[in-house]
Design brief:
Elements: H1 2-35, E1 40-43, E2 48-52, E3 55-60, E4 67-73, E5 77-84, E6 87-89, E7 101-107, E8 113-118, H2 121-142
Antiparallel strand pairs: 1-2, 2-3, 3-4, 5-6, 5-7, 7-8
Length: 143
């Protein structure tokens, strides 16, 4: 009887972990369906991000699909910055560690900006470089 009581918390932890894994799997599957409409997309626990042509869409992943989706155009963006712990850093030489990792999109209208969170610095830097190049190409086409 005593041994059975010792295993009970372990059994409860196992079921909780299985439930959490199932929820995460549902999020990934919902993301996979959502991402099919984009040329380039990313998923992590903080945010989903998709790019199609000049439009960027991002939101929060859930088991039923992304929510709080926002879409904006690169045409309206003045600058893209990689922020680590709230401070701008170079995408070419990002730091190895940081608590908060975000790509900040600064609009041509100064008071507006969008910050998309990331879990990994290398992934954020890669997206930052790609989108900065796309932004440069877009601005050179308009000139």
């Amino acid at each position: 009887m005593e041994r059975g009581l010792l295993w009970l918390p372990l059994l409860a932890a196992f079921f909780w972990l299985a439930w959490q894994g199932s929820k995460e799997y549902q999020k990934v599957e919902a993301y996979r369906t959502w991402a099919e409409q984009f040329e380039r997309a990313k998923y992590d626990i903080y945010a989903v991000l998709g790019q199609k042509d000049h439009n960027i869409t991002w939101g929060k992943p859930t088991p039923k699909g992304p929510i709080k989706l926002e879409t904006f155009s690169l045409i309206d963006i003045q600058q893209i910055r990689l922020l680590i712990d709230g401070n701008p850093v170079e995408t070419e030489t990002p730091p190895e560690k940081g608590r908060t990792i975000e790509l900040e999109f600064l609009f041509t209208e100064p008071p507006n900006s969008v910050r998309v969170p990331f879990t990994e610095i290398p992934l954020a830097a890669q997206w930052g470089k790609y989108l900065q190049n796309a932004l440069l190409n877009l601005h050179s086409e308009q000139d």
